[in-house]
Amino acid sequence: MNRVQFILSTIQGKVLDVGCLSGTLNESIRAKIEEKELYGIDTELKKEQENEHYKIADAEKHIPFENNFFDCIVAGEVIEHLHIPENFVKECSRILKQNGQIIITTPNRNSLINRMFKSYHAPLHFTLFTKQELTELLQKHGLKIQKFYCQPYTEESCDGSQKKWLFPIRKIMHHFLPNSLQEEMIILAEKVKE
Questions:
Q1: pTM exceeds 0.70 for this model
Q2: Three-class SS of residue 62?
Q3: 156, pLDDT greater than 60
Q4: Strand 38-42 vs strand 70-76: parallel, antiparallel, or unpaired?
Q5: Range of the domain at 108
């Protein structure tokens, strides 16, 4: 199951798509859930695009929705682009309902492929995590991991990749590596406490 399939099979209720203008993920989510249930934030949103559901916002400063508002938050390939990801996780915990879920996809800092090919050394990758580091950050803010797995990167998940010839090699190598050395982490966490 790829990252989009996992996200689409998991989302329910009132959903916030963080970084909604990047890539094609928002289009897939829009096709899956009712428009009245979908919200989004992005720093690239233009003033004329802003409305009750879509807002211009910096995810690590303040997410402009009330406490306990969302059933699900999707942060696909977002957290690695933040300077202070702890602020983002804290905000997500604030706006999630009790037992609400957050889906995070992000590069694995320990990935053998990423280290070999310097795949995640992108100018806009400010913070990379290992599974342990991300688990600890989520737990600190009342979020408990329910599901965790890794997958190889695809053209869909790293739209701006300069090394597209690597995708078939990544897919093969993925199956021979232990989980701790695989590429893209996909995490489903649940808000377990205020």
A1: yes
A2: coil
A3: yes
A4: unpaired
A5: 3-191
